[in-house]
Amino acid sequence: MRAESILQFHPQFFPRLRSCFEIIALVCYESFSVKNLLITNFGNHFKATSNLICYICYANQLLFTMNYLDIAQKWLTGDFDPQTKAEVLDMKENNPSALEDAFYCNLEFGTGGLRGIMGAGTNRMNRYTVGMATQGLANYIKSHVEGDDLSVCVSYDSRNNSKLFAGITADVLSSNGIKVYMFDDIRPTPELSYSIRMKGSIAGVMVTASHNPKEYNGYKVSWSDGGQITSPVDKDIVNEVSKITEPSMVRFSSDCPAPIIPMGKEVDEAYLRDILSLTLSPESRARHKDIKFVYTPLHGCGVKLVPECLKRLGFTNVIHVPEQDVPDGNFPTVVSPNPEESSALKMAIDVAIRNDADIVLATDPDADRMGIAVKDDKGKMVLLNGNQTASLLTYYILTRWKELGKLDPSKYVIKTIVTTELITDICNSFSVKVFNVLTGFKYIAEVIKRNEKTGEFICGGEESYGFNVGQFVRDKDAQISCSMLAECAAWAADQGLSIYGLLQKIYSEYGFRKEGLVSIVRKGKSGAEEIAAIMSGFRNNPPKDICGSPVCRIIDYLEPEKTGQPKSNVLQFFTENGDVVSMRPSGTEPKIKFYFGAKGSDAEEKIELMKNQFTKD
User: Fold this and answer.
1) Which residues are catalytic?
2) Which of 355, 434, 596, 612 could be 427's S-S partner, Cβ–Cβ 3.0 to 4.6 Å?
3) What is the full DSSP assignment across 362-394?
């Protein structure tokens, strides 16, 4: 039993478990001959409960150390390819800490799939861990889904090894008798979602790590509705994947494989047609077709379709960033291909300044998130964050839907709990229902699926630069977002406003709000432990006031019976002045995120105070 599991027992259980603990302790004690060291550290009173726990913790650590070394040795002697063996040997001889991190655990197949650093090891993204995950997925499909013609769609982005991992995924599924539709080249994540519904597939796999650093890759599973897997399917798939403990359990090939059918232009065309059907202001686009845009895919797959979207919308003045149009998993022109980070848009903004462009559009490597920069009232290019962009698009779309007579009580908007309350205020002014869900677009897709027969999804978004419109795609979609933002700019121009001017109009109507985000990165095993300690500290000792205003409400999403939401490791603190702080460990990256929301004319000053209060050592 791992030490952390033992320490989770309530003290009232110790007496009845004590004899069991003693047996474990004695076995470990004799096996590792650590008597002198244990006596030095813990004294001779091993039967006292506290000392017994210390003893087991120490013995557990020794067991763990031997375990990861044994597993690494299996990779050196087993049926693994020469390149993998060479990498393991190099870590063993030259970098013991890297070896530990590569083998100390299995790369977790979470409720959304895999994501991790690429390389050799059980805790890395490689052909073997991808194969094992796919075998578990195949086993789940075959045991839980009825039908003789089951299929899965597979796609991949521009990251290093994405094509390789997608090919392995397709081969394993095919070898298990499951038909595969596989894109013939890189495609955006939202098009994978679209293709699942188009092909009538039971699931989809997208090989991507979204906007993570270049060392990462990932494996994201979506279900038949095109949305990422949610409960109970996610947990059942995780359970099946956990049963695949060795690469030898993976069916990498078969004498009678199911077909692997390529997808390409026909899906692109259908997808583009449906995107154009969502637009609302063709006359405005025609009048302002010469708005000057700069677009960058940040070396990702957005280059496949975003420029074509803008062209088909009639915009004639789209300037590229040639160096970043090249798909490249090393992302050579940026420190990080994340449109949430200002440095990622620097090259595009420089191009915009040289060309006197009005708007910069940027998409992340798998083209599901969009970042923008616009001219302010002084002509300077400024970045807008995800909250501002989502608010702008929500306001524009609801305004046009109202003007077109499309609003009724069945229509609704969705946002995540950490996304600006400005969206709630906007929806209330249009008498449109707004749903709040946990962080992650899969929860937005879940609400859409649940309401398919009773309502119509208008649009929805999250502060982390994800947005979507309409029913065609059940994930965030940068192709749709770029198209709607471009059209919004043309519509605003009809009102004599720039995008920046439209945002100021919204603030004047609904009140000024400011949001901030701080992400603290803590990598590896020790980082995960530190993040857990931070959450525990705030959970056990919550702040009494924020920016001088008393905390009047605390929401702990580990208590689903109180929140009405699925259980999640999220804390929120609300003040009497309407400010809010939310904190959560990222589910896909080695970081903890702090979300700050302030209300009022002094919101910017309050954001800085919040950052100092919550994130400064």
Assistant:
1) 210
2) 434
3) EE-TTS-BEEEEEE-TTS-EEEE-HHHHHHHHH
Angle made by CA atoms 282, 287, 288, in degrees to the nearest 5: 100
Do residues 222 and 140 make contact, with C-beta atoms less than 8 angstroms apart? Answer: no
Segment 433-453, tens digit of pLDDT:
999 999 889 999 999 999 999
Q: Which of 59-68, 210-219, 376-385, 487-496 has the lowest mean pLDDT?
A: 59-68
Dihedrals phi, psi of 131, to nearest 5 degrees = -60, -40
Structure tokens at 150: 């089951």
Look up residue 381 and give its two tokens.
């290019």
**CA–CA separation, 318 and 308 (whole Å):** 10
pLDDT at 545 (0 to 100): 96
Distance CA 27, CA 387 (A): 56
Predicted local distance difference test score (pLDDT) of residue 12: 39
Average confidence score pLDDT of the chain: 90
**Alpha helix locations (H) across 110-251?**
127-144, 162-175, 189-199, 233-242
Cα Rg of the chain (Å, integer)? 26
Question: What one-letter code names the amino acid at 259?
Answer: P
Mean pLDDT score, 205-228: 95
For residue 213 the two structure tokens come to 């650093």
Instruction: Tell me which residue of 199, 205, 200 sits closest to 162, measured CA to CA.
Output: 205
Q: How confident is the model at residue 524 (pLDDT cuts 50, 70, 90)?
A: confident
DSSP state string for 322-358 = GGGSS--TT-TT-S---TTSGGGGHHHHHHHHHHT-S
Dihedral sign computed on CA atoms, order 111, 112, 113, 117: negative
Question: What was the pLDDT predicted at 154?
Answer: 98
CA distance 381 to 227: 35
Beta bridge partners of residue 204, listed in sequence order: 153, 222
Q: Per residue in 125-168, pLDDT tens?
A: 999 999 999 999 999 999 999 988 999 999 999 999 999 999 99
Tokens of 400: 């046009």
Q: Measured between alpha carbons, how far apart are the two ends of the chain, in Å?
A: 34
The strand order across the sheet containing 293-296 reads 318-320, 293-296, 359-363, 370-375, 381-384
CA–CA separation, 197 and 189 (whole Å): 13
User: Can you say how many angstroms the Cα of residue 504 is from the centroid of all Cα atoms in its chain?
Assistant: 30
CA 244 to chain centre: 25
Q: Which of 59-68, 372-381, 513-522 has the highest mean pLDDT?
A: 372-381
Quick check: helix, strand or coil at residue 594?
strand
Cα distances (angstroms) measured from residue 135 to each of 56, 118, 253, 538: 35, 19, 11, 40
Which residues make Cβ contacts (< 8 Å) with residue 601, sequence separation at least 6?
Answer: 512
The angle, 0 to 180 degrees and rounded to 10, between the axes of the packed helices 82-94 and 96-103 is 130
Distance CA 476, CA 1 (A): 41
User: And the tokens for 441?
Assistant: 């677009």
552-575 pLDDT, tens digit each: 999 999 999 999 899 999 999 999
- Residue of 600, 372, 381 whose CA lies nearest to 482: 372
Residue 546 contacts by C-beta under 8 Å, 6 or more apart in sequence? 573, 575, 579, 581, 609, 610, 613
